[in-house]
Amino acid sequence: MKYQQYVQETILSNAVKLKHLARTNMDKTQDILTSVIQAARHEYDLLKQVR
Description:
- By secondary structure, this protein is mostly helical.
- Helix content is 96%, strand content 0%.
- It has 1 helix and no strands.
- The protein is rod-shaped and about 75 Å long.
């Protein structure tokens, strides 16, 4: 019974860690996308000035 409880607690703990990692990953991906979009807008503005 002790072992089963240990396994359940470990699974729960790992699930929580995965959830946090997924959140961090989503936040970082959002930051990268925001930077890429800003850079693209800046390049587009520069191109408009050249024409």
